[in-house]
Amino acid sequence: MTKQVLVVEDFSDGLNRLVVPLDTPPGQASDVDNFSSRLAPALAVRAGRGRFATLGGAGTLLAPYLTAAGRYELIVGYAATVAKHDGVTLTVLDTGFSGRVWSWAMWPDRDELYITNQVDGLRMYDGTTLAAAAGAPPAGDIVVLHKNRLWVAGIAATRATARFCGLNAPADWASTGPSGAGFIAFNTPDGSPITALVSGSTLGVFKPAHVIEVAGDSPEEPGLPFNRLDRLVGRGTSSRQGAVMIGNTIYWVERGGLYEYLWGGEPVNVSLAANTLFAEIDTNRYTEAVLIASGDGRYLYVSLPCWTAWRTLVYDRFKRSWWEWKAFGFRAALLWHRPL
pTM for the complete prediction? Predict the structure, then answer.
């Protein structure tokens, strides 16, 4: 008996979301559900639109800044320099830095952008100047804004501790009381450091093999005191740029792939369709993996340092589809939708 092969449609020319479905040319798909370009290599992804620029050295920072006048600037770090770009001109803000990757947090109500790394310390940009933040804050590799407080972790001397400033007081790192500053020590039997912080309705704290939730909004009563909830053991990330929170859902990168998690549930590996690529991660550089989300939360971009080259994968959370973005890998990235 001879088997007959019937080709219903050939999408070898790729995926095209730039036109409406009725205008999609033959050989292109307008949308594809639950696929991996590695499992279906004939299905390529059409190039989108982007702008790339070389700024003078290895990228260390990309952050948006909304000025008091309602205009956007892009704050960029490269090599030993931090600069701003207004869409036309690149203006150096300061130089002489270590070249270490920065973590950043924007405080919209104050028109202030905070950046930090363990070597250069916490710094604040107010739309005019970039200077050391006031109040002798800790120098850490991680900063997030959570419940109107800056939280800093990745501190050299206290690697398992996260410190937070006073309520609505980024220069206050010493006061006590319900509105005061303080710290939480996230000690675990393995003695591991904090590797990432993510902020949502609660705070997510990551270690290489632990995921911890912090509920509450105050160090002590009469507010709702901060409460540590150890959620997962044996799961976590070693990359300080390896986790994001979208709504109440957390995603993180570890050696086994990309995981999705709701507090109190079970983590789900959503990258099984792309597991051959995750298996290529260079275990000596795993801490360099980067995970970012699009502004609407639909797409996740995962940049992986693999044995042969950097690879960037894209995950569609709605369609649960994967494809490989072959442009390049990155160590600092920003999906920025700036109004024209």
Answer: 0.82
